[in-house]
Amino acid sequence: MKIIELKETITASNDLDAEVLRKEMKQKKTLLINLMASPGAGKTTLLETIISKLAHKYKIGVLEADVDSDVDAIRVSMAGAKAIQVHTGGMCHMDAGMTRCGLEALDYEGLDLVFLENVGNLICPAEFDTGAGKKIMILSTPEGDDKPLKYPLMFKESDCLVISKMDVKEFFDFDLSKCISRAKALNKDIEIFPLSAKTGEGFDEFIEWLEKQIIEWKR
Amino acid sequence: MKIIELKETITASNDLDAEVLRKEMKQKKTLLINLMASPGAGKTTLLETIISKLAHKYKIGVLEADVDSDVDAIRVSMAGAKAIQVHTGGMCHMDAGMTRCGLEALDYEGLDLVFLENVGNLICPAEFDTGAGKKIMILSTPEGDDKPLKYPLMFKESDCLVISKMDVKEFFDFDLSKCISRAKALNKDIEIFPLSAKTGEGFDEFIEWLEKQIIEWKR
Questions:
Q1: Which of A133, A184, A185, B49 is the most exposed place for a label (fewest CB within 10 A)?
Q2: What letters, b where the CB count within 10 A reaches 16 and e where it falls short, cover B176-191?
Q3: DSSP of B99-166, one letter per residue?
């Protein structure tokens, strides 16, 4: 298991760096997806399921960004993806320079799809463009349906909202329609997929959307 | 409902500011507790339960820090605490200067106990001393028992770890003894209270510990 230690790129031009990286990824036909969520919302579990469903059709890589540990990179490697662990040196988010370093260490040439599993945090990662082509966020039902009100930027910035752990929503009085309308009020174009990795509910629609993004990126 | 908008205090001397604030709070016999956790771990629910159990004996105040919204301040006000909402202007944590502004706006004179409900985030709040006398963190069972490995600083910095949502731990394969030994490996002195706000399990021990802290602070 490869682990690299990164420090924040001190640059006033993160947005510019991100734009350059996005263009390079487009030329190489590799879709980079920035996956963001709170700690424990189910990012790694979602990746494991995606890999199990798509690894026969697409070459998939994963950058696992964490403050510490390598448990997630080991999990997604075992699921069948090319993975490396990125340590952020205490940083609470990834930026474009850090993402470029991670991609180079991963050696992403020839991959169709690379996930950047960002640090578990609903605030800071939303503020930094990593150069990803698409942004997916996860909200898990135990976190509560009021989260769009409290962390609006993440919902505004994401292309897709996965609502995870739908199998346990009753235990947490999670109101799906309230959550959807709060998210849509912030971002009318956000695609929303309620699902459960335990029961498999909702995955067909999500995987269909994801494949569409890969195909469009390669055009 | 009072809402104040704060900006980060640009100061190299946050630790010093925090120390000064802590001494002032000690002189005024008000215990300030910095309450930290991921989004949705149950910070506000824990506060509601604490207030319901202790408001007849102690005067309690709450600073509700959020990037946006005022839902939490309304909840704890209704539970019987003196509360204000603090907006952090996008910031992912509170520092000592912001906490002082919040305390002044709350007018905390005569309160026995003030909770700073920090922004929902397991990373950044751990890095900034707010001037609190004690730090409590919450980990909810849906987040997983591996979180000490991934967010070690928060576990190192906290005096007390509340493990919440114990009533649903089976749904998430949460291994309590693994979680406790991982937390203790980072911080051997951390006090750990597994509990459930839904069933009431574990609260007697936690409230007993909390009252001990209030009494010791007033000495």
A1: A185
A2: eeebbebbeebbeebb
A3: HHHHHHHHT-TT-SEEEEE--S-SSGGGGS--S-SEEEEEEEGGG-TTHHHHSHHHHHH-SEEEEE-G
Q: What is the pLDDT of residues B114-162, one digit of tens each?
A: 999 999 999 999 999 999 999 999 999 999 999 999 999 999 999 999 9
Helix pair A14-27, A96-106: axis angle to 10 deg: 30
- Cα separation, B138 vs B168, in Å, equals 15
What is the rounded distance in angstroms from the CA atom of residue B64 to the CA atom of residue B77?
A: 10
Domains of chain A with bracketed CATH: 14-218 (3.40.50.300)
Whole-complex ipTM: 0.81
Residue in chain B nearest A64 by alpha carbon:
B150
Q: Which of B150, B153, B155, B182 to mutate to test the interface with A (most CBs of A within 10 A)?
A: B150
Residue B168's region, left for phi above 0, alpha for psi from -120 to 50, else beta, is: alpha
